[in-house]
Design goal:
- It contains 9 helices and 21 strands.
- The chain is of the alpha+beta class.
- It has 2 domains: 4-243, P-loop containing nucleotide triphosphate hydrolases (Rossmann fold, 3-Layer(aba) Sandwich), CATH 3.40.50.300; 253-360, Nucleic acid-binding proteins (OB fold (Dihydrolipoamide Acetyltransferase, E2P), Beta Barrel), CATH 2.40.50.
- Bound molecules: adenosine-5'-diphosphate and magnesium ion (MG).
Length: 370
Amino acid sequence: MAAITIKDMSVSYNKGKSYVLDKLNLTVQDGEFCVFLGPSGCGKSTAMHCVAGLLEPVDGTIHFGEELMTEVSGGKKKNFVPPQERNIAMVFQEYALYPNMTVRKNMSFALETKKAPKEEINKRVDTMAKMLSIDHLLDRRPAELSGGQRQRVALGRALVRDPQVFLLDEPLGNLDAKLRDQVRYELKKIQTQLGITTIYVTHDQTEAMTMADHIVLMKDGHIMQEGTPNELYNHPNCEFVAGFLGTPQINLFTVRVTEVNGALVLNADSFSLPVPVELVACLKPYAGKDVHLGIRPSDLLITEDGLIPAAVESIEPLGDAHLVYVRIGEQVVVVKHAEEEAPAAKSLKLSPNPAKLHLFDPSTEKRINP
Ligand SMILES: Nc1ncnc2c1ncn2[C@@H]1O[C@H](COP(=O)(O)OP(=O)(O)O)[C@@H](O)[C@H]1O
Ligand SMILES: [Mg+2]
């Protein structure tokens, strides 16, 4: 196994007229489950293809551990290990199993071409099949399998080769929701057991939040923020990150920082909130100006003495909670009410959890509070 280090990597598909990735720097630790997350077209697959050696950057280096895999400077290739020599395994959404081969043969094929001893091959296939709960399917052909089973065979086929780096590009995209949850859980379990350095590409924040040790959240070819799922969720460094993680999305308000009798308050058209002590210092410079206030749906509580008056528009039951859509002034926002009973009143009072306020500068969209 090995860490992956990417330094100053730039990628262009049009000979430098424009860059899909611009000086990307990133370290994926040895054994880590790293998720490249971001909207479609932000450059996730491009970055992964560079790690795989399927694509040459125009600049930058990639190391696996101490080993130099890619080195390109100003479009000139200095070092480049071809993909088949990188000891990587890849799984894509469009996994192509060999239709005429049994599951066992699909899984053992790559090892056989490498002339591994037969007993060793059988042992590895059996172990991996057990881990993936497909050991009862080894004699079937792909056409006799469900979508979820096929995807597990594809994962098994990649993993029996004992790669040093495991690369997955939206591998669960074709599965229905229930299967996706199940394969997601098993994939994470196996990755942890094997301790294999993994990069997983997805646009799905739930997959990222549930599986990642390390999320790399990208937009337009740039890393917006990286860290653990909790770090990104609890401390988004900008509005984009705050909005990308969490469902339903974070609510954003424009509020004016106002000084009243020596104390700071946040004023909106229909409510006014005192600034918590911890936030006074960082908001002082914004006195008299607007800031964006982000509050997650689960951090807006329905209370009797809440300072935000809200009119209920609609309610969605979730079983153990309710999503309450309310109108606050001109804006519709969502409250996650963690109770089995829906609120009965048509007009409510809301209190934000003062420890969970996210403040952003409207001009830069960057986080203001520590
Ligand atoms: N082979 C290619 N030729 C030209 N442009 C490409 C090619 N592959 C990807 N792109 C462009 O590069 C950008 C990033 O694409 P990609 O890495 O596939 O994004 P993601 O995987 O995040 O959806 C997109 O704007 C896409 O249109
Ligand atoms: Mg992609």
